[in-house]
Give the backbone structure.
Amino acid sequence: MTDTVNRQILLVEKPAGKLGPEHFRLSATAVPEPKDGEALLRVRYISLDAANRAWMHGATYRAAVETNTVMAGGGLAEVVSSKAAELAPGDIVFGDTGWQDYAAVPAKHLTKLPRIEPLTHLLSIYGIAGLTAYFGLLEIGKPKAGDTVVVSAAAGSVGSIVGQIAGIRGCRVIGIAGGKDKCHWLTAELGFDAAVDYKDAALFRQIKAAAPKGIDVYFDNVGGDILEACLPQMNNHGRIACCGAISQYDGAPSPHGPRGVPGLIVVKRLIMQGFIVMDFMDRRDQATADLQTWVSSGKLKVQEDVIDGLENTPRALIGLLAGENRGKRMIRV
Ligand code: NDP
């Protein structure tokens, strides 16, 4: 039976500096009625993404989130009732459900997914995180066996998968993450060849020691100082896959950032390319099949960080931006 009350988390103020709990409010309204072409969804899991914070700054690859609206966010949901021919009660879908218990969403904005167990894998390894890692590394980074691959935010959802896929492809893999514990986890548990703590002052020297032959592929999740430290260490014809810029999302933009970029790109013949995972969705089945093979053979470990309770979603995002998470963080609603 459907509840009558829909709990929602609203963004009530756009943060000028760091995101805090005061920027959100828990509210309650009636469960919506789906219109023609829409499905009523019961949200099961909400994906926490660094990009949620970037959406508060302004338009990105999607419109900005405005104040006094339901906070936007990807969710895994079950269809409760449908006024769209292509969806039926019980179907599992992914879409921008927002941070709420129920959502009425046009079917054309939803992706119907197979009901696999555990369902959480549809948000982590077979969701945006896994697909971003897969396409960003293989299509933009184009690693070859023997290459040195460096990935930042390496203990996060995208980064932890990037590093493991690079290892599967026979590369030397170096992860950059915050703190000794995360670095140890990357090498001891996920099979990275080396890990560098970016909170240590000697970042440049640490990367050089870990990558004595230089960097062939840098998978950049963070931008800023870490990108600046990697750029001069790129080998000729190296590739930089620009996936995100998390160092710039929360608070005032850093006054630092990569300097000397054009000269280095020319002299080293680098390719530096941004991408959005949605551009590759027509090849999702191929990626999912490869990821499933690696997961079932034990070559790729799936790390999830599941927090209970819709009311904890703001805290979970604030914590993700502060580096609390290992692997894919999500809320079980
Ligand atoms: P993660 O699970 O990777 O979590 C974010 C991690 O970033 C934190 O755990 C933290 O770990 C690290 N971090 C936070 N602040 C900084 C900083 N200033 N410098 C370095 N590291 C920092 O998040 P997501 O998987 O959601 O996102 C990873 C990246 O992928 C983001 O840039 C995101 O925008 C991007 N992305 C891009 C997509 C695309 O299509 N291009 C699709 C999906 C994601 P630590 O403890 O190591 O600091």
